[in-house]
Amino acid sequence: AQKITQTQPGMFVQEKEAVTLDCTYDTSDPSYGLFWYKQPSSGEMIFLIYQGSYDQQNATEGRYSLNFQKARKSANLVISASQLGDSAMYFCAMRPPNTGNQFYFGTGTSLTVIP
Amino acid sequence: KAGVTQTPRYLIKTRGQQVTLSCSPISGHRSVSWYQQTPGQGLQFLFEYFSETQRNKGNFPGRFSGRQFSNSRSEMNVSTLELGDSALYLCASSPQGLAGVLPGTQYFGPGTRLTVL
After folding, report:
1. Which residues contact B103 (CB under 8 A, 6 or more apart)?
2. Contact A100 B42 (CB under 8 A)
3. Angle at CA B51, nearest 5°, toward B45 and B57?
4. pLDDT at A1
């Protein structure tokens, strides 16, 4: 069974500082995709970044980067230069192969940016 | 492109009633998935539809059902509502249609918040 673990229920970061949100996963499949989503209080899940299991380089999207360590099965999200608007829940998700678009989500990390 | 839209945004029902939620995917997206989000269980996959066929189903009772129309719009229905069905129901669409192809990204709608009294 697939499992995603986010061990940080809540995190605080000072505005303009960088923060790392942890995510580990468990799968026996060699091919999979890893995703991070942001969920503000409004409820909508916003796609942030994607990493494929065969990608050689860590994914980056603007202020977001993914620290992918395949051997350790970790896919940590790094947010640089935090902004007040980054305050939200952040979810790590995995899509195994041959499951259509069935995603498995972690329990999420609540990030609060302090001015 | 317009994003994923879900209607209604809020719904209040009583136990034993049934409810139908609607989702319109991003234009051109053929896959629609549904998720239930609760504080206790987190985000759980309900089912996925592609080309009007259910391709995947999560571990939910038969009271939860869905369908997809030829224009890719999808509905999900919950019959005989229980208090535990109170949740945020999220719909996601994806341009990916083929199992085994490199994973695609899902784009989520704003959700329907269902309250069962």
Report:
1. A32, A33, A50, A52, A95, A97, B96
2. no
3. 25
4. 64
Of B50, B103, B107, the CB nearest to A32: B103
Residue identified by tokens 């977001």 is A64
DSSP helix/strand/coil, B59: coil
Using 50, 70 and 90 to split pLDDT, how confident is the model at A96? confident
Collapsed DSSP state (helix, strand, coil) of residue B84: helix
Residue A39 predicted with pLDDT over 90: yes
Nearest-CA distance B108 → chain A (Å): 6
Burial class (CB in 10 A: 0-12, 13-18, 19+), B98: exposed
Q: Taking Cα atoms as reference points, which of A26, A39, A37, A13 lies closest to residue A113?
A: A13
Taking residues A35-53, report their average pLDDT.
93
Decide if A104 touches B, using CB distance below 8 A.
yes
Q: In whole angstroms, give the CA distance from residue B52 to residue B6.
A: 18
Task: Pick from A45, A104, A105 the residue to mutate for testing the B interface (most B CBs within 10 Å).
Answer: A45
pLDDT confidence tier of residue B98, bands split at 50, 70 and 90: low
Bridge partners, residue A36, by sequence:
A49, A92
Residue A59 has pLDDT above 70, yes or no: yes
Closest-CA residue to B15 (of B83, B64, B65, B115): B83
